[in-house]
Sequence to fold (239 residues):
Amino acid sequence: MRMSTEIESLWFSPFRQIGEIQVIHVDLTPHEAREQYALEWLDKEELARWQRYLPDRPRREFALCRAVLRYSLCRRLGCENKQLSIVPATHGKPHALINGQPAPTSFNVSHSGYHGLIAFAQGQQRLGVDVEARSRRRDFDGIAEMVFGPNEREEIASASGLAKARLFFRFWTLKEALVKAFGTGLSIDLTAFEIPQDIRHGAERSIFQFPGQDRTLWELRDLSTNGYAAAIATEVPHA
Ligand SMILES: CC(C)(COP(=O)(O)OP(=O)(O)OC[C@H]1O[C@@H](n2cnc3c(N)ncnc32)[C@H](O)[C@@H]1OP(=O)(O)O)[C@@H](O)C(=O)NCCC(=O)NCCS
Fold:
């Protein structure tokens, strides 16, 4: 299957390398030719899913990110696209199979507005990534009641204007990266745990442990840029 250098460089690019974890950025600005080309990479189930999305934005986000995911997995794993299937686990977290067998790589995808991020790790290391285009017109305090713990809510409530929006999306992406790494997504109570204080207050990285869960440690990193909020959570391998 072809993929010209032109399409590759316009469409996605390296974003961050953290040890062996690679994060790429996918450009999701509307682009008819790229979207058509992306469809060539999707399998039958994915095309059917693409057709079920009626609005343009989720259609585009899904097609472009899924095509880049497939292309990148083929390159990492040295397989052909037709050997690859991407299947959901219990709460919907996708993983890759090659000829029906688990692929020796893990990944996670996030898309928001014109930005997609895809993170890859070696082996079965669990990870979650989240990106959110920031907007200022939202009831941040109202939403915070539903998704944040008491300290997180208080810090958001005492900020205003742009600082409030930044804080909200910082906390939100960090929290979502964690539940995506964990694999449950939003099916768990987000108010039942808080993002560590150091990273809430500006540190770039921190270590987290889910209260009441096993002893797995998670490394959290803020990946935000001026254009969007983003975060990644990765399982810390046992020593
Ligand atoms: C996963 C979830 C957190 C996504 O949040 P979002 O901000 O809307 O979307 P994002 O763009 O950040 O992430 C979407 C991507 O996360 C991945 N994903 C889906 N479910 C996931 C999960 N449980 N854990 C981690 N990643 C997941 C997918 O790759 C998806 O993109 P794709 O479908 O285009 O490949 C949210 O939809 C959720 O909690 N879903 C689980 C609901 C559930 O329990 N479903 C059970 C029935 S399947």
Summary: The first helix runs from residue 5 to 11. Residues 71 and 81 are 7 Å apart (CA to CA). The longest strand covers residues 105-112. The helical segments are 5-11, 32-39, 44-52, 56-77, 140-147, 150-157, 161-182, 197-200.
